[in-house]
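Database export, one record per block. Field names are fixed; values are copied verbatim from the stored entry.
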Amino acid sequence: MVWTPVNNKMFETFSYLPPLSDEQIAAQVDYIVANGWIPCLEFAESDKAYVSNESAIRFGSVSCLYYDNRYWTMWKLPMFGCRDPMQVLREIVACTKAFPDAYVRLVAFDNQKQVQIMGFLVQRPKSARDWQPANKRSV
């Protein structure tokens, strides 16, 4: 078996798995909230989801390796103080309903370490052609 790089783009670690079910997303949300992390939703249109020459702006040689558009648009503000996993799940539904043709990911921030702790896709657009199910990723 050989991994095919054609139409096989991935995001965070979970994107190598089959798409997460609502129950699996809920379990991850429970984990985020139980650890006291701050959940936040981000979204991006298909053509802006990946950093590439087409979706990035370079500001000359003085900013070598700098690319604009590394960050996705934030859905509302991070959910500071969130202790109710259902609040996060409701926001996921609202975001995916508002942007059905966008990638949507859930990220979690640790306010003690001041870093993003985790992130994973909660929606891949139905129109996405840059991904294949796990059983078709190799030839």
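Remark 1: The first strand starts at residue 38 and ends at 45.
Remark 2: Residues 61-67 have pLDDT under 50 and may be disordered.
End of record.
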